[in-house]
Amino acid sequence: MAALEAPLRWAEPCDILRMGLVSYAGFEPTNFRAWMSPYHKQYPSDMLAFERATAQDYLADPDYLCIVIEDNPNPDEVSFTGAVIPSDDVAAVRHGKRVQDQGRVVVGLDRQHLNGAWPSVCTTPDDCPTRDQYSDHQDTAYELLINSGDEHLKDCGVILEYLVVHPAYQRRGHGQALLKWGMEIARIDQQSAGVTAADSGMMLYGAMGWVKIMTYGMAADEVSPEGFSGCVMKYYTQPEQTSGQAGGQDWQVESETNVACNQDAKEAKNDIGVQNLVDQLEEINDVALSLALTLEQTSLSEEDLAL
């Protein structure tokens, strides 16, 4: 198991209230949140209850690893998010006390499944209020994510299900630290890792060596005028892990994206402090370019390569 060093640590039951607040604040700007819970501003207590019940369920599940990252509290953190955090919320009150005591607070979290299993069903925790949600959107989004994972992530030994950082503490390397820890687990186990990433996270994953496999999304409607989109991404720890993909529907996407991710990672290296990323991506890039040439020679039609 990869070692945890401050400011990273294992999540504990006492963190659940704060984890719910961080999750709500961190995902509030995304189209996915607007799709799943379009009424969260009217019913913020329901949104917080959902995030906390979810955190509690995952902490209690032995198949999941949950870690958090801490930082010094920002007294004005609520101004960095459009999430409606009631001033009397327990976590908000505790945050105020942390500011006075000059203590540290949870500002980000990460949870992942290690047994290579993609959830066959996604549900709202039992007895959780749902006034913030739109049930039709919940059903269609869960079905889309489950089908995407079933098709593309079954071979992954590590599934990154959740990574979020509070907006007031972003651009400090917290997301990179959380992601690198999960990647280290995959490297130790010599397993590939997978994620269904929101558009907002694609740049981070791409710069850290993850490969885009396919995109997904839902069209806009009267409830959510922007719809939402995301992508399935993989992180390969061994070059041979890509060999079985050749000739499949996804390989053209992987080959082209490996090249793009390689260039993005080189440009972002100084910013994100990734030590071994370039060498690793160059190895994958060699494989990708070779297979891309093979595909070109076989003259596969656009219909054969369509996702």
From TrEMBL:
InterPro entries: Acyl_CoA_acyltransferase (IPR016181), Trichothecene_AcTrans (IPR052523)
Coiled coil start-end: none
Annotated protein name in UniProt: N-acetyltransferase domain-containing protein
Organism field: Lithohypha guttulata
